[in-house]
UniProtKB/TrEMBL annotation:
Entry protein name: Dihydrofolate reductase
Domain DHFR: 5-203
Pfam family, one: DHFR_1
Superkingdom field: Eukaryota
CDD domains cross-referenced by the UniProt entry: DHFR
Organism lineage: Eukaryota, Fungi, Dikarya, Ascomycota, Pezizomycotina
SUPFAM superfamilies per record: Dihydrofolate reductase-like
Keyword field: NADP, One-carbon metabolism, Oxidoreductase
Secretion signal, residue range per the UniProt entry: none
Species this chain originates from: Trichoderma simmonsii
Length: 205
């Protein structure tokens, strides 16, 4: 089977802060959250026979999602937890998440479930982003760069600033629009008094 491509999706402050005390450091970025929901749900047209994309997350991130929104609808939810069985069921019960013990197992599961091309997203938190970034399949980061500081105790493990850093390159707004199917404003947008910009970064090696 061809190696699947992994896309990390994250919203982070200027200092790459992503969390505080088990929740997000900011409040009220509703349109940002809707962008997350649309982008992770939208299936590329060339593979519209694929029922859905997969979202991979750590157990703490799962716990941080309001119960009424979980599992995230119209997406295959894969939760990484050390307490998962070594041999996960070969299909998830309808309307529930699947639990696996590692990023490697999550990838294998997503790949089998989405064998004809559904997208695979990694949605955190820090420990899971870190493991995913060590994986060669991690090709892309969809970063929402929040132009503000909030108190954070959890950080994205890669500093994406400027145009190019650490083997990663920021793609153009047009390339982001093409890949996500979203139309995004040039120069970013503002919500609840906070400015942020949707960005796409890709490995440059
Ligand atoms: N990436 C980005 N860009 N923004 C985020 O807020 C974000 N959050 C996480 C991971 N990557 C992100 C992890 N945290 C929900 C809640 C928390 C969460 C991720 C998702 C959630 O409830 N999502 C619903 C939408 C709910 C709504 O419309 O308010 C979903 O269907 O995706």
């Amino acid at each position: 089977m061809a190696s699947p491509e992994l896309t990390l999706i994250v919203a982070a402050t200027r200092s790459m802060g992503i969390g505080f005390q088990g929740t997000m450091p900011w409040k009220g970025l509703k349109r940002e959250m809707q962008y997350f929901a649309r982008v992770t749900t939208r299936v590329p047209t060339s593979s519209s026979q694929i029922p859905q994309n997969a979202v991979i997350m750590g157990r703490k991130t799962w716990d941080s999602i309001p119960p009424k929104f979980r599992p995230l609808k119209n997406r295959l939810n894969i939760v990484i937890t050390r307490s998962a069985p070594a041999n996960p069921p070969s299909s998830s019960p309808a309307g529930s998440e699947i639990r696996v013990p590692s990023v490697e197992a999550a990838l294998r599961y997503a790949q089998e479930a989405n064998s004809s091309g559904g997208r695979i997203f990694v949605m955190g938190g820090a420990q899971i982003y870190e493991a995913a970034l060590r994986h060669p399949a991690a090709k892309r980061v969809l970063l929402t760069s929040i132009d503000a500081e909030f108190e954070c105790d959890t950080f994205f493990p890669l500093n994406l600033t400027g145009e190019e850093t650490d083997g990663w390159k920021k793609r153009s707004r047009e390339e982001l629009q093409e890949w996500t199917g979203e139309e995004v404003e040039e120069g970013g947008q503002e919500e609840a008094g906070v400015r942020y910009e949707f960005q796409m970064w890709e490995r440059s090696e």
